[in-house]
Amino acid sequence: MEQPSRLAGTVRPGGRTARVRAAVLEATQDELVERGFHGLTMDQVAVRAGVGKTTVYRRWGSPAGLVVDLMTELADQSVPHADTGALEGDLLANALSVLEALHDGRLGPTLQAMIAAATCDEQAAQGLRAFYSRRIQEWAGAVDLAVKRGELPEGTDGAEVIRAISAPLYYRLVVSREPVTREDAERSVARTLAAARAGAFVSPG
């Protein structure tokens, strides 16, 4: 799920409001990388962004509100799914984009902090679900194209295929705390592709 590691381009037309949001989200990501979610404070984000504390509290309300808006911004900036002309190439592109994100010195810690936030805050959990739902649905389009080309059975659930690609990688990162390698990504693609071709992801009915 390809996303930028830094919030480049967050300043959009809209004057001061857009500039304030960009500065606050940049500061939020900086704080998440350095301190994690449990170390994220509204006051420190305000200081780092050079914005009044009242503005930050009024607009975002809580650290979870900052995280949710940051996830929205990262999702908005992510690029479309790959279209290599073959499903295997598209799935490998997806797996490698996940691998790149997890290894990125800035985005990797940001994602881990977001996941940590979601385990203890329902607002953050809803934001995380929305974030990944957008990315999964985007990449599911590559699977839909493969179905149209006849590479997979009719009725294949593209979103489930994409989840199956990234699930082993996130398990290693978050649960077992093991290194996540290119070999892991390639293995996940091979196994998911074999299962998809066998009809394992065809929706009932």
TrEMBL record:
Residues in HTH tetR-type domain copies: 18-78
DNA-binding region, residue intervals: 41-60
Keyword tags: DNA-binding, Transcription, Transcription regulation
Matches recorded under InterPro entries: Homeodomain-like_sf, HTH-type_TetR-like_transc_reg, HTH_TetR, Tet_transcr_reg_TetR-rel_C_sf, TetR_C
Highest taxon of source: Bacteria
MF (Gene Ontology): DNA-binding transcription factor activity; transcription cis-regulatory region binding
PANTHER family for this protein: HTH-TYPE TRANSCRIPTIONAL REGULATOR RUTR, TETR-FAMILY TRANSCRIPTIONAL REGULATOR
Name of this chain's protein: TetR family transcriptional regulator
Lineage, top ranks: Bacteria, Bacillati, Actinomycetota, Actinomycetes, Streptosporangiales
